[in-house]
Automatic annotation (TrEMBL):
UniProt cross-references to InterPro entries, sorted A to Z: Nucleotide-diphossugar_trans
Taxonomic source organism: Cohaesibacter marisflavi
Protein's recorded name: Glucosyl-3-phosphoglycerate synthase
Length: 408
């Protein structure tokens, strides 16, 4: 059961056990007659081999309020794309699978490369960006939502609660972020949120002082949640990172373009679990190590845009301040877990904090050493200005793929 707390910056919509999920879905079906709802699912082919996605599709098949589902498929050859088409065919809603590695979409990407507008690196951000482009090209969406394909505890009520605030015409919200507790197998999860982003934001505010952007990020109960929904008209001006900074990047763009009165967060689940990334202490290019570095760089870039000047001394001080605060939080989360019959591995939690602290400086060095880096994928408004026909050609390429490789 949620509490009543409001932070005063971003509206928090709680999950009280007083409303019927079925009634909410019926209301959404009514709203969806005038506000068409699209769901984006960024997926690796490997996720089709896991039970989590199969359950997600079973639940989505019962979500009558969804008008269209756009699946971005990465790392798939032709045989795997054909398999994916059959795999997703169980969805009763209108749906389309973007074969990002297919020859037609590669040709679209090459066109973007000649203009200097192609996403610079593969990853979730690139996948989501192309899905956003397709949604714009299809011109049949008013609300767009996104969530991952590895949610083990998924049910359709999560999606209903996520889209309701922006689908309801009586609400003024244009963007909604999901939040939830990360609990599974008798322990607290969500290490990057608990032990990295939360103490890092506290440390940054301690060093920088009052800062509207940092205050805004701190208002979110789970800023790294991969579940969010927004009005579709926002997509053309959305500039997002292609790396693990996607979630922070999206929040930053919303902060730049909209009043906080147009933003809310909603509790979408009592328990939430998905695929766990390894800490990856030995390889900084993968796992939580890579994730923390990318997130830190995304924060530094945004703060620099706001006029904050960084130096090597600043990052060393930030590391020390962060480490003390994060280690204190290890104790707090341990106590919280014990009170609720859960556990945390305090040794591994402290090792995580030490790794994250080192990555704060590493991310700072990378930021300082490469001042000419272009961190965001160009928005779709710029793409359309540079190549007016590209969105239409993109739409037709996806359509041709889905027809040529359709289910027999």
């Amino acid at each position: 059961m949620g509490d009543f707390h409001q932070n005063g910056k971003v509206a928090t919509l709680h999950h009280f056990p007083t409303a019927s999920a079925e009634n909410m879905e019926r209301i959404l079906e009514t709203y969806a007659q005038n506000r068409k709802i699209t769901l984006i699912l960024p997926s690796l082919f490997s996720e089709l081999e896991q039970p989590a996605l199969s359950n997600i599709l079973d639940e989505l098949s019962k979500a009558k309020f969804i008008n269209q589902i756009v699946i971005g498929l990465d790392r798939a050859n032709e045989e795997q794309y054909r398999h994916a088409k059959q795999y997703f065919a169980r969805l009763p809603q209108d749906h389309v699978v973007l074969w990002n590695d297919g020859p037609r979409l590669k040709a679209i990407d090459e066109r973007l490369q000649t203009l200097g507008l192609s996403p610079s690196e593969p990853g979730k951000g690139r996948n989501v960006w192309y899905c956003m482009g397709y949604v714009l090209s299809a011109k049949n969406s008013d609300v767009v939502a996104l969530h991952d394909c590895d949610i083990v505890t998924y049910n359709k009520e999560m999606l209903a609660r996520l889209v309701y605030p922006v689908a309801n015409p009586n609400f003024s919200y244009q963007f909604c972020k999901g939040f939830y507790p990360r609990i599974a197998d008798g322990k607290l999860n969500g290490r990057v949120t608990r032990l990295f982003i939360t103490p890092l934001l506290l440390a940054l505010r301690k060093l920088i002082g009052n800062n509207e952007y940092l205050e805004y990020l701190q208002a979110f109960r789970y800023p790294l949640a991969g579940e969010f929904a927004m009005r579709t008209y926002m997509l053309p001006d959305m500039r997002i990172p292609s790396d693990w900074g996607l979630e922070i990047g999206v929040l930053s763009e919303v902060h730049r373009n909209f009043s906080s009165k147009a933003v809310c967060q909603v509790e979408i689940a009592d328990i939430y679990d998905h695929k766990h990334q390894p800490l990856s202490e030995e390889d900084a290019t993968t796992g939580l190590s890579r994730m923390s570095t990318d997130i830190a760089k995304a924060l530094y870039r945004k703060l620099a845009i706001d006029g904050i000047i960084f130096s090597s001394e600043f990052f060393r001080t930030l590391k020390a301040t962060y480490l003390r605060m994060s280690l204190d939080m290890v104790e707090t989360y341990y106590n919280d877990a014990m009170m609720n019959g859960l556990h945390t591995d305090r040794h591994m939690e402290e090792r995580s904090c030490e790794l994250f602290a080192a990555n704060i400086v590493e991310a700072g060095s990378a930021y300082m050493d490469n001042p000419m880096e272009v961190p965001f994928i160009p928005n779709w408004s710029r793409v359309s200005a540079a190549d007016y026909d590209l969105l239409l050609d993109f739409y037709n390429a996806v359509k041709q793929d889905n027809e040529e490789y359709g289910v027999a």
